[in-house]
Amino acid sequence: MPPRNRFAELLPEITAWRRDFHENPELMFEVHRTAAKVADLLRGFGCDEVVEGIGRTGVVGVIKGRSDSAGRVIGLRADMDALPIIEQTGLPYASKTPGKMHACGHDGHTAMLLGAAKYLAETRNFDGTAVVIFQPAEEGGGGGREMVRDGLMERFGIQEVYGMHNMPGIPLGSFAIRPGAIMAAADQFDITVTGKGGHAAKPHDCIDTTLVAAHIIVAAQSIASRTVDPLKQVVVSICTVQTDSTAHNVIPQVVKLKGTVRTMDSGVQDQVETRLRALVEATALAFGASADLAYQRGYPVTVNAEPQTDHAIAVAQAVSGRVDPATPPLMGAEDFSYMLNERPGAYIFLGNGDTAMVHHPAYNFDDNAIPFGASWYAGMVETRMPAA
Ligand SMILES: [Zn+2]
Ligand SMILES: [Zn+2]
C-alpha cells in the first residue's frame, strides 16, 4: 500500500497524539512528559533501539530496514517544545497550562514523525537504517546543538539528515524549499560606551558618551551599505539605547546599546562582527572614550545541500505534486542548522493553509497536513534507500 493510503488510515491515531501534545505543552529542555510519551510510542512500534536523554531531553529511535547492503543511515528530525504564550484558540484540546502553548506546530511535527516511525517499523521497505530524532528546545535553547554535542551523528552513524516545518500562508499539503540558505543566522550584541560624566553645562570637562553612541549608531549602518556585498542579505539593527542619566543636565558616564544581526552566509556573519568591533572601538577612541562590544552568535544559517534538496523536492512532488522549489529564504533562525552543519541534508516547509502565523496566540497546526508530512518523512527513507 502506498504510504499516503496507510497514513490516511493512521490519521485518527496520529491526530490523537498531536492533540494530546497540544493539550500538554512543555518549554525548552523541560519536555519530560512529551519525550517520555515519544519514547513509549517508539518502543511500542517495535523500533530496534530507543534512546532517551540525548541533548538532555532528546529522544532517538532506530529502525532497521528489511536489508542493509550498503550501511546507509538517514536521520529524520522533529522538534518537541512549545512557547511561553497564552493560548487564545478556544479549542476543546487547548493548552491545559496557562502561559504555555504549542504555537509553532511542534506538536504536529512530533506527531507526523511518530506516524512515519510507526509506518517504517511495520513495513521496513528500505535498504539501510532510519533514525528518527526528536529534539527539545528549538525555541531559543539550542536543543539541536545539544544533541549534536552529545554525539548524535557519530553514535547513530547518520549520513544525511532531513527536517520539516509547517508554514501558514502556504496552501495545505503544498511544500516549499530552496537549495542553499533557507533560514538566517541570528546574532545579538551589547555595546558599552564609557566616557566621563559630568555637568551638561561644562562639556569640555566631560567625555560625552551619548555623542559617541550616536556616532556608533550611524557608523553601524555603513556595514550594510558599504561593507557587505550589495547582492548579499544583511540586517544590522540597534534596538536599545540606555544611558545612566535621567536628567536634562547630566552627561552620562556610560551608554549601553543592544541590537541584532541577521545574515544568510557565515562569511558575511564574520565580516559584520569584525567590522562592527572595529567601528565601535575606533569611534570611541576618536572621541577619547572607550567602548566594548560583546557579540553573541545565535543559531547559524540553515543551509540546504543541493543534491539532498533535489531528493526532498522529488519526494514532495510524489506526495502532493505541489512544490515551490525556489521559495525565498526567511530572516528567522532555526536550530536544525546545527545538524545541517554536521551532515548534508535539507529542511522543507509544509503548508498549513490560511491560519494565524506561527507564534500567534490563535495559531493551530492543521491536522489535515499530517498525511502529507508523514508521507514525506517516510518517503525520504524509502526513496533514498530503496529496498533491494
Ligand atoms: Zn517557533
Ligand atoms: Zn518552530
Account of the 3D structure:
It is a single chain. The chain has helices at 3-23, 32-45, 106-123, 143-149, 152-156, 209-227, 266-286, 306-320, 337-342, 370-384; strands at 49-54, 58-64, 73-79, 129-135, 160-167, 175-176, 180-183, 185-194, 198-199, 234-243, 250-251, 254-263, 290-296, 302-304, 323-324, 345-351. The protein is elongated, with a radius of gyration of 24 Å. The strands form 4 sheets. Strands 1-2-4-3-5-16-6-15 form an 8-stranded mixed sheet, with helices on both faces. It has a 4-stranded antiparallel sheet with strand order 10-12-8-13, with helices on one face. The model has no long low-confidence stretch (mean pLDDT 97). It is built from 10 helices and 16 strands. Helix content is 36%, strand content 24%. It has 388 residues and is an alpha/beta fold. The site of one zinc ion has 4 residues, from loops. One zinc ion binds at residues 104, 139, 358-359.
